[in-house]
Model the fold of this input.
Amino acid sequence: MIRPSQNPCCLTRRAAMYKAYRRFPVVIAMVGIWLLVSAGVYPAMSSEQAPGQIYILTAAGSINPGLADFILEGIRSAEKAQAEALVVQLDTPGGLDTAMRRIVQGIINAKVPVVVYVAPKGARAASAGLMITLAAHISAMAPGTNIGAAHPVAIGTQKLDKVMGAKVINDMVAYVRSLAADRGRNADWAEKAVRQSVSVTAGDALKLKVIDVLADDLPDLLKKIDGRSVRLTQDLKTLKTAKASTVFITEGLHHRILKHLADPNIAMILMMVGLAGLYFELAHPGVILPGVIGGICLLLAFYAFQTLPVNFIGILLIILAFIFFLLEIYVTSYGMLSIAGIISLALGGMMLYRREELEVGVSLGVLLTTVVAVSVFFLAVAYLAMRAQLRKPLTGMAGLVGERGVALIDLNPNGKILVHGEYWEARAEEFIPQGEPVEVVQVDNLNLLVRRVSQPAKGGV
Done:
């Protein structure tokens, strides 16, 4: 009699529930990470701050969507607090055109004066940083800094042809001249910075009227801009910064994560790792960990793709490569599917980002390394999966084929044998006397077809 606790159906349901409970913390962790990245953790800003304070934030690194969000959030916080001004301490080699234009639009339409201060010593405002500096209500630099070198470039495997290059340069020239003219700065020099990639020091920038102030540090800057009048969207505002208190804005976790995820190389690597994890899980079901890691990496990759100029043909080519590698496990293609997958993977990496977007792309070194590493991984997993499929079964009815036992009674042609410690009905195509060693040739329902062997079974029966 079977007790209820031993009922096979109950045990099956309990096993399924146990597996579900085991995976529940993993699902919660994935959801938590996604909500944390999506919602972000912004700097704490008190809406009850007294007017007249100077808000200060540091924008260092390449111009990307993460940095753009941080600066725009700083502008909104300064507006909400009715701050006297917002100082953006800038140090950048350049970056994405779309992110730069978002920042410029935010500065131009800001309801508080925005001061862009290229600092500390050794910092620079190159390429996209020049446009941000020109858009500021007041632009300043510290000694030992430089500005300029704004010629449009395409980074990575992307190259601009002559026609596209001319269009991009002319568009950028018109943009930079309009920014400089609107702020009363040297539009001719700004055009040279775009067409000829000229760059000047802080002192020369002041003489050329590219910037308004040369300041040693933040206190010196606040003293020198005190009493200056700036034109906002609707009226003029006279700054009172000499004795104003300061509030420093720090990056939240959301901005720090996005700054790193918005790197085109990192976004591509995350997608490759994500697909590799899912591929391993599909090839070896039940491992769980590779699938979890793959899912998290794919979520982060697609989150980064929202902020980058992605070419969806590139994504489809990478997914197609994943499908080719997966089919290699189940279809006999003599390596053709693997070759197609490698080619599709390489093309997808090169086409992952739109060509017309400036200063974005996967670097050739990262592309080659990633394609080689992921291809080797896929091929290795496919080899292991195929070897497992071709391996002789070790359990079940099929696992009996090739096993040796001993005839318990004469087989003429039917009888009984002992194999694997079990009694089986067997038949042979020849007479086999009792006690003779036999080998299982075929399993037919619950009957075994056996033959005589010359050597006894190893280890006995």
